[in-house]
């Protein structure tokens, strides 16, 4: 620090800070504008809409107070939809994690053709989720579906089963598809985490007589923790917001027994033309997502100052 | 944080590979899981992950009467490659328009991401300034949000702004929601370029812009390619926002158009799968190119 700044520390530092921010602004402004226009503003507009009375063609008809929220609470299927949402998110994320941990462990070992297997695993990640969901919907058709007939041919089913015709089986099928499309990202993240595990540490644990399971639990798992934390968080957000799978597989089933809050929002927008109630439910969804992010930030503290 | 992550990964990875091989030589002698059994298990796993897409490929070559036939056939009795020609002119959806729509929206969204994220990533990696971490946190939060959670708001906003049902609206949406991945991965690549390299170029009398163009950009090229491909694939597959914002059939992308072939009673499955293959193959190839770096980009912002 020079003598000059020591003499007048606060004002000069403040001037420096302001200059630094002004210098940074042109570089960050495009990103900030885009985030404001397409993320923050719609979020605010949605919150505003949730307190308005809207016609089916989208004309604002004045304040509704909290009317949209009370209408939402009175919505007959809501309890089931909320329960479905919890089952959907927890079930899909948990099953995905367990399978991914095994899969990543396997793909970390050296064997002939490993590169090709890894590339095969990436395909459901790159492919459009709608398209993947549609092929499952087709394959499980009780009449002409090849997957359904395959299950009969190998003796797992006595006759074809209407997987996609009733809410509960269709919901479970959707969860399976959601696990299928979530596996690549989770597996790859854990696989990247496994690269951080030093080989000599594992060797040392073995020399000390630890079995494979013990080594995994006490050596590998603690090092994997950050990778798993990130994979789980991103997965929670993705699964919570997932629309195409349930829309494709359970969309033609009447009622709301196979809906989550996300698919219900789209039914409010598209089928019932109630943008006001849809906004109220979106605000609720938005609050849940923010709460999840908040919990995550508190737990993992990714933003440590450097 | 992101810097450290990339800096330690590379040597760590190299170390580990050599050690793994040594270690596996030993375990193999001790436990003896034969390599061919591992390879076989690998083949089964690959088959499971590819199975739905194999069904698509096979289905796309079946005649309409056969694909709706009961019981279904595993392989087409007659291969009908002409499905890939006839699918472009069907009553269900104007497919050539949908293809153009998908390309315009994806390319536009990707260019927007690049134009907006590149300067931000460069500056945050090279300079300290107050509010830097607030900015990066804001970007991280947008990664956690998806168009679905804001669909109702976007729908209203675009109606009010008069760009409802336009490509522009979808380009903006794809630009905004793919911004964070691009910022974070390019940030970590820029931060990985040693300052000394740039300083040396400055000594040689290069201007700031010359340094950026001739020294820094070539070094961060892999990061830029990864960001571009990720943004492109995500925009290509985007579904939820397109569903509510694009109402004219001609404006809709493939992901929405394809659902038109699926009806309650009568579905043109052979076209569903033909279009799916056309929509999936290019992006799988792109993803395969940047396979290793995808995870780094998605988690760079979040793992210390």
Secondary structure elements and pairings:
The complex is a heterodimer of chains A (306) and B (304).
Chain A: H1 3-7, H2 9-49, E1 52-54, E2 60-63, H3 67-74, H4 78-108, H5 114-126, H6 129-139, H7 146-153, H8 167-194, H9 199-207, H10 212-240, H11 244-250, H12 261-270, H13 275-300
Antiparallel strand pairs in A: 1-2
Chain B: H1 2-30, H2 35-59, H3 64-67, H4 83-86, H5 95-126, H6 132-144, H7 147-161, H8 167-177, H9 179-191, H10 195-203, H11 208-237, H12 240-245, H13 254-257, H14 269-289, H15 291-300
How would you characterize the overall build of this protein?
Chain A is mainly alpha-helical and 306 residues long. Chain A contains 13 helices and two strands; from the N terminus they run ααββααααααααααα. In chain A, α2 runs antiparallel to α13 (275-300). Chain B has 15 helices and no strands. Chain B starts with a helix and ends with a helix. Chain B has two domains: 34-81, no CATH class; 89-300, MetI-like fold (Orthogonal Bundle). Classes of the chains: A mainly alpha (306), B mainly alpha (304). The interface between A and B is large, with 116 and 121 residues.
Structural class of chain A: mainly alpha
Give the ordered list of helices and strands of chain A: HHEEHHHHHHHHHHH
Instruction: Output the number of helix runs of chain B.
Output: 15
Strand content of chain A: under 5%
Multimeric status of the protein: heterodimer
CATH architecture of the largest domain in chain A: Orthogonal Bundle
What Rg of chain B do the Cα atoms give?
A: 24 Å
Order of helices and strands of chain B: HHHHHHHHHHHHHHH
Number of domains of chain A: 2
> Helical amount among residues of chain A, as a percent range?
over 70%
Overall average pLDDT of chain A: 86
Count the DSSP helices of chain A. Answer: 13
- Helix-residue proportion of chain B: over 70%
CATH level-3 fold name of the largest domain in chain B: MetI-like fold
Percentage of β-strand residues of chain B: under 5%
Q: SS-based structural class of chain B?
A: mainly alpha
Largest sheet of chain A: 2 strands, antiparallel
Mean pLDDT of chain B equals 84
Distance between the termini of chain A: 21 Å
- Strands in their spatial order, largest beta sheet of chain A: 1-2
